[in-house]
Amino acid sequence: MSLEIKNIDKNYKDKKALDNITITIEPNKIYGLLGRNGAGKSTLLNVINNRSVPSSGDVLLDGNTLLDNEVTLNQVYLMSEDNLFPSTMKVKDMFKISEQFYGSFDWDLAEKMLEEFELTKKTTFKKLSTGYRSIAKLIIALCVPCDYIFLDEPVLGLDAAHRELFYEFLIETYETSPRTFIISTHLIEEITNLLESVIIIDKGKVSVAEDVSTILETSFTLSGPKTSVLAAVKDSEILGQEELGDFISVHITGQLPDNFSNDISVSPLNLQNYFVQLTKRK
Amino acid sequence: MSLEIKNIDKNYKDKKALDNITITIEPNKIYGLLGRNGAGKSTLLNVINNRSVPSSGDVLLDGNTLLDNEVTLNQVYLMSEDNLFPSTMKVKDMFKISEQFYGSFDWDLAEKMLEEFELTKKTTFKKLSTGYRSIAKLIIALCVPCDYIFLDEPVLGLDAAHRELFYEFLIETYETSPRTFIISTHLIEEITNLLESVIIIDKGKVSVAEDVSTILETSFTLSGPKTSVLAAVKDSEILGQEELGDFISVHITGQLPDNFSNDISVSPLNLQNYFVQLTKRK
Questions:
Q1: Which of A187, A214, A241 is the last residue of a domain?
Q2: What is the extent of the structural domain holding B166?
Q3: What ipTM was predicted for this assembly?
């Protein structure tokens, strides 16, 4: 039961926000959806979740369109900056309405999260701080019974200890009942270990859709004297480079060159740096 | 011309949000205002900037109260999640109104920031992505002529490259025209080098108000066999500790013990870890 995003375009008057986006999202995997500010991530998430109408293209779940289709739409959930409830509503009532709408709700997990995050469920949403608003929305996202959960900037406003706690709850619920999570975040370093695959959106297009392990196994930085390094990488796909005098660091993707002189040092490129190199703007 | 926050209390029906907060904020320094989610940071910033009325206490600028005083209020600026303008307004009109209100506006810096962040000033605010909304508000905060600029979560939703760019602009404008910045953020590691002092708020109270250099010079982690380490730190102020079998790491603040056995390794504690240890909840 894959989620297929097919040839999605989204045009605004003066801008092509999404340009022929085609991705297949598989069941029971954790994805990272990465992109620079303004790349189109939130637009894509809104289209997939029927909150915004695409200019063309379709989103199919098990072959059935999601767009304007209440039955299949019940299988996807989007947590984003938007608040779906009146801000005067109490947290516990937000939970109850989510249960009514989606058919069930993981109350055990919700209670555990309320306790660990020290959030009182009698509080009205508007009285919560920025961080605690995110926490209330995160609890709902992890407790609804949907197969595809999209999290747009889930840790916005969360302190470091609360971010860590959320990642732990995510792993726990994913292991207990596998489903698909698609997480859009700018804090790439701290989430790398959770992700199985990443989709990188750059200027409205899919730039990379790949398993994280593949990216990490095929991305390197070669550093050393300029002449040695440039000779070594002459057939490589270069992501970016930094120079300092006669010294150079070149970031490459693909195979590590077979032979290179021993004045070159090689280090792996982490996902955050891979992303930064790939989406650098000239 | 210091900003004095004197005995500020803020009580809600069921909660003491701020408990006798007294701080002096000096001119021409960059402060970090740190605290766990829900500690009271935003409440404090709203009180100082007259957006929320304290239950008791006062805020004085050069001896004159700030609260409900339009003349002195013109010297402080708060950038926060709140949007002060109608969301249908264009970015350039937000700049113009800020100029009218505060008397002048650094248009050179604004144009430079628009260009480097690739933000079009003809765009209406509501059409901007989360990250670009932060960017528009940040430009205003750096371009108004106020002596005290409060930034509540300034990099919310910004990608790593844009966060770096913002920090560079902040240093540049601070060096060109020194004034006071008070920055509240959960991304402590990446901002440590910018800060001269920190104020840590914990459960509505001031827990630490200290120069960063002093904190870094007097915070250590001692690691090694449990018996050796516990003997070494017996007179120290302990922030926290982690144990693994017979091995222990103890985080201390204050003087490094004079004599300790050579099976102990000592490392400095960075600001992020200092904060985490200090504000851990039981």
A1: A214
A2: 3-211
A3: 0.88
